[in-house]
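Need the bound structure for magnesium ion, inputs here:
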Amino acid sequence: MKIEAITMREIRMPLVHFFETSFKRTTERRILLLTLHTDGPEGWGECVAGEDPFYNEESIDTAWYAIEQYLAPWILGKTIKNATDVPALFRQLRGHRMAKGALENAVWDAEAQAKQLPLWKLLGGTQKEIACGVSIGIQNSVEQLLEKIETEVNAGYRRIKVKCKPGWDVQVFEKIRNRWPDIVLSCDANSAYTLDQIDHLKEFDRFNLLMIEQPLWWDDFYYHAALQKQIKTSICLDEAIRNSRDAEAAIELGACRIINIKVGRVGGLTEAIAVHNAARQANIPVWCGGMLEAGIGRSHNIALSTLPGFTLPGDVSASKRYWKEDIIDPAVEVSSQGYIKVPDTPGRGFKLKTDLIEKLTVRQSTLRAKGIAGAAD
Ligand code: OSB
Ligand code: MG
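Answer from helper R.:
Posting the output first, comments after.
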């Protein structure tokens, strides 16, 4: 397919409820959406970079820059056979994986539609239903957190993950376990601890957690390996795994027993599949992480989660947990048993609410094969 133009747009979407991690409280998302105009079907991608470079080094603004200045010009006017050919076109730009992923995933969407295949089949997926968990942020009070957990347990979610940080950890786990001794529970520290706190981290072992996600530095596996030797709870790496080589190194070092795969964090679906394959080869279970995505990113996550190594429930949950109205139709829904049924229609499998997307847009720019057209047209 020939890439004729790329529309970049920023939409703003308030969250139904704030989402707080050890690094930040988010109340409204600023989301970068891409539309790929080709000589065939139109492809859409969502950039998962946050409002600030606090989760990793990228933000919506660095992604906008990387796409506008480098990535879009490098593929505009090109004829691309397969989305798997895209990473090689982007190689000269170091990092900026979330920016790259947004564009590559739009190519996957267009390719799947051109081939009349559901995206999940094009990726090599095998699971027709995916198991869902939820990620629950730090709340104003433990009571508020317990109420949220109750809602999600009743909704059928198959794993509850709570965000933690020093001062919001063991006391909170204690209260959760008193009330729900048997639910599948995990925690995510987003790098809130250091190795000096090892005695404190050892206390987490009392709570029968499925895993602790990224307890130490965001870019580390060496010290995670040291920590994993001293705690019983399985470490799951999120931030630190940027590609399949990282996955291989972390696994060989013993830095984790579980890996969270986020499509954007590793630079797109091609690399996400490679991370999945590396983990599968080593018998390391993986699950699909989330970045508070709107419907486009969410539908890419659903497709990825159908690969056979995704054996643990992911942070892929219903649209209504995040948004009053999602930008896709139908919205993502989760069954009372905690599963999402994977759509069988070509491409990502969800229609777009283009009027709503227009309404939410605060800036947009269309880039064309020859020269750059600034404003919308
Ligand atoms: O570490 O998994 C994380 C959200 C923003 C940044 C980092 C993370 C998260 C989540 C939310 O945990 C998962 C979701 O989309 O529900
Ligand atoms: Mg995480």
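Comments: The longest helix spans residues 97-114. The chain has twelve helices and 15 strands.
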